[in-house]
Structures
1.
Amino acid sequence: MSAHQRPLTGSVAVVAGATRGAGRGIARGLGEAGATVYCTGRSTTGNPSPYKRKETIDETAEQIRDAGGNAISVRVDHTVESEVEALFKRVVKEQGGLDVLVNSIAGEDPRGSMSQWCSFWKTKLDDAELTFRQSLLSHIITAKHAVPCMIEKKRGLIVEVSENDGLGAGGNPITQTVKLALKSLALNLAAELRPYSVSVVSVTPGFLRSETMLERFRVTEANWRDGGKKDKNFLESETPLFLGRGVAALAADPATIEQSGMLFSSWELGRKYGLTDADGNRPDWGAHTIDFSGHPKSLIDLLRIGSDMQIRWLQKLTANAEILRKKLPESAAR
């Protein structure tokens, strides 16, 4: 890749939750674009997280370096504020600053709350508080300690990784609350950081062909299309790198500040920046006609009712925001 194809050369990024899935893909995408990437998380070689998955941040960093990039793996528990604070002190000491933070911590929890698909009243809440701490509070802690690095230089990008390009996501109230809260967190941070020229966005992948999803379909990246025999929608899936390339394009675009606070999908970024996935194709989940034949009627009814309610809810919020905006003075007194 030539210099003009590495627009993030000289930039420094921290990808929190770079062990696997979207986090790993984004770390790779940023490294591919020339950024020095700190890959953080709890799973290191010989010391896995409580999830007991085989993927590690060391492996992610190695993949970036093997592709010609620069990456450093640092074990951090992002629910422990002292560890997060130490991370950013180290980054500033070693690199002189921070340009990009990606929060992709605990996007999935294979052990409990995040993996449930059930009715609200049947949800098991045994580890709900732990889930909120790992999947939501960790993002707030991490952003808190990254922001001063960016405010000082009046530039930077914070990316919150969520799920779905609407309000709904997940199959239980724990997951739904987390995923919606991350989008709201990006929106609120964007408003507060706009005077400092720091952009904040949330992003979502399409049908993500993560390590976990490949296992679920009993395929590998080499023969992933065989999964289409089980679910036709899988043929429109994407690797985590596709979202990573989208995030890298956002980080390199000086106009991103004008879109701060927004929610971007991988397919939207693919169209906007002319991106392709690892195989050279451009998956587009947004344009895909979803095959619902394998879904129960109750779920389809829920999605339809929920979509109608979201439309009315957003229309009401828009009207409320417009009323407030008209009442606000153009220049606040100091």
2.
Amino acid sequence: MIRKTSENRRPKENRRPKLVSFSGIDGSGKGTQIEALRGRLNEMGLRVVLVTFWDDVARLKGIREVSGHTLFKGEKGVGTPARPINRRDKNVRSWYMTAVRFGLYFVDALSLRSVVNRALRADAEVVIFDRYHYDELANLGQTSLGQTSLGQTGLEQTSPGLTSRITRAYTRLLLRLVPRPDISFLLDADPIQARARKPEYPVDFLHNNRASYLALGELAGMSIIAPQPVHDVKREVLQQVLKKLSPLRRRKAEGLAAGNSQATAKLESQTELSSDSGDVRSFTT
């Protein structure tokens, strides 16, 4: 008779990878925190898989590009302090765009559900999601006051937000449809500072979008990280992730970190620590 190892006897919940998602307004620092967490977990000997929402989850991208660039004359690319751009996509509000978003976001939710199921079978301890369906639901205007932004004509248009029973019901449906990550980080940020880092959308839109994220964060039970220095956010994120790991994995990670403190300090001084690491893999559909 073959005896099962202690690894096999451990509950399945402890063997599956932990799912961690990062959400927040543009310029809130998601990329910085994801890279920091990937690098730190890799140093601790943990295997990490990255899932990017736009590359691995989003569907019907052609429709989005046509609406943003062709119909609404938005600029392409990523805004930087040296080269601001004017995007016109999620900040364009009208009843028909809300209807289109309902359709697109439902398709993405089905895709995300499939991606999550496959991620749970990944050969890794942690799967990180760069954005989740929360980032799309926040675009619907999850506030009691509604959301305003510049429409195609340049005039403000109002979207009813969570005061609409349809939007509320739709949001709850998608929250039930897609499995919740073990930790869903919502990186809160001052809209003015966020736009200075990533100038793509008007400040007024970012203020409304932030309020939408915070309302959704409360509804979905997300872990909201208040605005604070980058290194403080890194420490808080790492602590929360380590707490979610099984005791055996946590002891392994902490033991490796303690036994290699000098090597860790050297690695932290290197740039692009985790981007070329063999233990940090991208997740493709």
